[in-house]
From TrEMBL:
<keyword id="KW-0812">Transmembrane</keyword>
<keyword id="KW-0325">Glycoprotein</keyword>
<feature type="binding site">
    <location>
        <position position="77"/>
    </location>
    <ligand>
        <name>Ca(2+) 1</name>
    </ligand>
</feature>
<keyword id="KW-0560">Oxidoreductase</keyword>
<dbReference type="GO" id="GO:0005576">
    <property type="term" value="C:extracellular region"/>
</dbReference>
<dbReference type="Pfam" id="PF00141">
    <property type="entry name" value="peroxidase"/>
</dbReference>
<feature type="binding site">
    <location>
        <position position="255"/>
    </location>
    <ligand>
        <name>Ca(2+) 2</name>
    </ligand>
</feature>
<dbReference type="GO" id="GO:0042744">
    <property type="term" value="P:hydrogen peroxide catabolic process"/>
</dbReference>
<keyword id="KW-1015">Disulfide bond</keyword>
<protein>
    <recommendedName>
        <fullName>Peroxidase</fullName>
        <ecNumber>1.11.1.7</ecNumber>
    </recommendedName>
</protein>
<keyword id="KW-0479">Metal-binding</keyword>
<dbReference type="GO" id="GO:0140825">
    <property type="term" value="F:lactoperoxidase activity"/>
</dbReference>
<dbReference type="InterPro" id="IPR010255">
    <property type="entry name" value="Haem_peroxidase_sf"/>
</dbReference>
<feature type="disulfide bond">
    <location>
        <begin position="218"/>
        <end position="245"/>
    </location>
</feature>
<keyword id="KW-0964">Secreted</keyword>
<dbReference type="InterPro" id="IPR000823">
    <property type="entry name" value="Peroxidase_pln"/>
</dbReference>
<feature type="binding site">
    <location>
        <position position="74"/>
    </location>
    <ligand>
        <name>Ca(2+) 1</name>
    </ligand>
</feature>
Amino acid sequence: MTINGARILLPTVYNCLIFAILLPLFSTADDILLPLDVKSKCPGAEDAITKAVTNAVAGNKGLCAGVLRLHFHDCFVRGCDASVLLDNSTANPNPEKDSIPNKTLRGFQVIDAAKIAVEAYCAKNKSCPTNGCDPVVSCADVLAFAARDCVKILGDFFYDVYSGRPDGTISIAQEAVDNLPAPFFNITQLQSSFAKKNLTLEDLTVLSGAHSVGVAHCSSFEDRLTSINSSQINVAFANSLKQKCTNGNVTVPQDYVTPDYLDNQYFINNLNNTVLFFSDFALRTNTITEDYMEQFGNNYKLSNPNTWKDKFKCAMQKMGRIIELGPNQGEIRKVCSAINVS
Ligand code: HEM
Ligand SMILES: *[C@@H]1O[C@H](CO)[C@@H](O)[C@H](O)[C@H]1NC(C)=O
Ligand SMILES: *[C@@H]1O[C@H](CO)[C@@H](O)[C@H](O)[C@H]1NC(C)=O
Ligand SMILES: *[C@@H]1O[C@H](CO)[C@@H](O)[C@H](O)[C@H]1NC(C)=O
Ligand SMILES: *[C@@H]1O[C@H](CO)[C@@H](O)[C@H](O)[C@H]1NC(C)=O
Ligand SMILES: *[C@@H]1O[C@H](CO)[C@@H](O)[C@H](O)[C@H]1NC(C)=O
Ligand SMILES: *[C@@H]1O[C@H](CO)[C@@H](O)[C@H](O)[C@H]1NC(C)=O
Ligand SMILES: *[C@@H]1O[C@H](CO)[C@@H](O)[C@H](O)[C@H]1NC(C)=O
Ligand SMILES: CC(=O)N[C@H]1CO[C@H](CO)[C@@H](O)[C@@H]1O
């Protein structure tokens, strides 16, 4: 299969094949997203990003949890277009960054470092004007690659990432509030939030497994501690959270068993009522999502322990292909925090 002269390689993850083959027929996203886009424009670009990400998180792997969440927040608002990375400016006077869900985002410096490193790498053999070469890798792609690298760093598994996402030029705080699911959402609200992005109940359950790494601020779940409902949260667990949260603005790990390891422990915890958010618990109030939960958590010993990991790879690829910019829209930003000046 050939598009624009680039040979299309299908993702190596076999159970994503159906998705990979069907999408090009129906989706404009695939007119843009090519598996080899960055590889053909600048061979070695992915390695340059991986190196920079690895360096940037060396002292604090928690930043990798931040990067995973950044990619999710990016893709859910205007598609994966790096709109989450834009700073306040005249063009975008009230960007996503300034919205409530963003206040706890972290890892921006990882993306900045990777972007600088990859553009420097790709410019190596070129003679560029004094104001620099044209940028080659979009910030949305850098973020998608960095999230993939962080999955490798935190979970020790790997998936291929398609590239060619254009960067958007618009970022609006209210759109983050409107498009991102909140931790108090029930299953109906979660389902509809994901359905708007063409993601299923399975995707919702699988992707929620990212809550096996990183942290949350008490403000994100404290409502569950004021009057403890023992059928929704383990009472001893809730009391231990309560104690930690008396110290004001603190964070607690999402996964108290293996806090730094991206694995299926989230599902085991959830089945034991020891997860932080109501939205996590809510996955157990629907027979479909509850079944997935059992598959990824409880019964993992009986079946393939990699069941969840394989699903997660595919779901991350799928989330990374949410493109809402039309053909010929967008740009490749020079600097991830600002749109290009013409
Ligand atoms: C299903 C709906 C989701 C809701 C309601 C939700 C909500 C939240 C909230 C409230 C936090 C804590 C923020 C804080 O207080 O510091 C958080 C953290 C996090 N979320 Fe989600 N999230 C959802 C889905 C996802 C998805 C799809 C991913 C990625 C694939 C993800 C990855 C993360 C990560 C890695 C963290 C930890 C971030 C850090 O340590 O800085 N979440 N999420
Ligand atoms: C964004 O910047 C403008 C001035 O450049 C300022 O008036 C406005 O308050 C800022 N918005 C936020 C949310 O910080
Ligand atoms: C630059 O050129 C060298 C020597 O031809 C080559 O090995 C290297 O891959 C090139 N680097 C890039 C980024 O194209
Ligand atoms: C979820 O919340 C919405 C809005 O409050 C409500 O209309 C809906 O009935 C709730 N669904 C469930 C399953 O509780
Ligand atoms: C969801 O799929 C429909 C039908 O293929 C498409 O029109 C729409 O743009 C997609 N939405 C997103 C957010 O990808
Ligand atoms: C406690 O949680 C259960 C399970 O979600 C629910 O059915 C019940 O109504 C809740 N009780 C209170 C008092 O909110
Ligand atoms: C369930 O959670 C409780 C409270 O944290 C803990 O003591 C117990 O070991 C957990 N059980 C399982 C099977 O994980
Ligand atoms: C909470 O603490 C973090 C650092 O852990 C800090 O960045 C943030 O500004 C604090 N938020 C508030 C509301 O004090
Ligand atoms: C990480 C980040 O950019 N956080 C911003 C979120 O929004 C507040 C304002 O509401 C900014 O002060 C933070 O810098």
